Amino acid sequence: MRFDELYSKVIEKYSNKTPSSSKAYTEAKKYMTGGETRSIVFFNPYPLTIDYGKGAYLYDLDGNKYIDFLNNYTSMIHGHANPNILEAAHKAIDKGVCYGSAIGEQVELAKMLCERVPSFERVRFCNSGTEAVLFAIRAANAYTGKSAIIKMEGCFHGSIDLVEHSIAPKLPHPEGDAPYQAYPDVMGISENVTKDVYIAQFNNADSVEDILKEHADKISAIILEPVMGQTGAIAAKKEFIVRLRELADTYKVVLIFDEIQCLRVSYHGAQGMYKVTPDMTTVGKWIGGGYPIAAFGGKKEIMDVYNPQRPEYIAQSGTFNGNKLGMAAGIVSMRLLSEEAVDYINGLAEELCSGITDSIKKYNLPVSVACAGSLMHIHFTKNVPTDYASTKNKYSDYNKLLHIMLLEKGIFAAPRGSMNISTVMTHEDIQRAVMAYDEVFNEIKNIF
User: Per-residue DSSP letters for 156-173?
Assistant: First the structure.
């Protein structure tokens, strides 16, 4: 059977199983452009409409149950409707959510973050990872007096114009080896913004140094995900991270780790795992206990550009920054993600990776599993990729097939192949997923 034939049959089964989601999507398109308000949730023929989540599970409008290996793209690290987080959230709501003033919970959560994240001497809150990156880069610019950045091809840092470059550019590169030309990933970005972006190759420190040798007088910061998220749980090599720290020091630029997803890979984040401390870090996702908060922080002297007691400072706006609900839920989420909890979810991820890898070998498939802590990604490549370019292959459409087939078997993962583990999952959940992958791989083994 050919790919397109199998895909058509799988779509038909999905549609028969989820008629209420189809109806809901048809209604949504009457009022929302594209029928959704968050592009990443869309997939063909229509996205599921979820009725509710409880623990490690999701339930759609037709009552179908799924083990949630997406967890709202890593933010629901303690599962859905966690009773401890709900209790804190309810108490916060009863007292009012926003006052337009300082609250004690901000200090408590800030202290917890500073004690956990090695680079955090000072921290400030915002409402999304995009905002955290915006304010971190703005601090680096103000501190250095420069305005250009180096980012890695394939790294995703949110939706501000400056960083929405070369996340998923076309390959091969027309200009040859790294460093690469910066390409906007979306329409509407000014070419003037693009002039302030330099693109280097992930896991290639020489490409970073080549840029710095020529343009260090313009560059304020190097920003990267130590573990690439959107591109597929690709972990940086230790020597790459160490070299970046050395280059940042040599050329007097600010090193920013975007740990919005990968803070979970160890108790002290990716920087704790690598034992390399950046100048600034952005965090988000699970630190809000499922509510929309994020944070950025770093060295005191850099963060001091936001100090209102200075004659000149950067005013950071945000109506809901540090709101009581998010702070209260975040405090509980931080407590729940103890060192033991991190070890537990990392162990479950290792169990799942091992099981899926065994099935890949059994059926001799050109597939690999990238795994970093409790983050995972299925790549249709023979070997685990080490950068953006090595993720590309002739089977680039196969993840959308895998995604729909897994939904049929009660496994909710990202259409692009990403998965992550929550603390409420069990070994039984992992084994159910291993079995589902084995069944899917058996069904698709003849279409390569």
Answer: ---SSGGG-BSSS--SS-
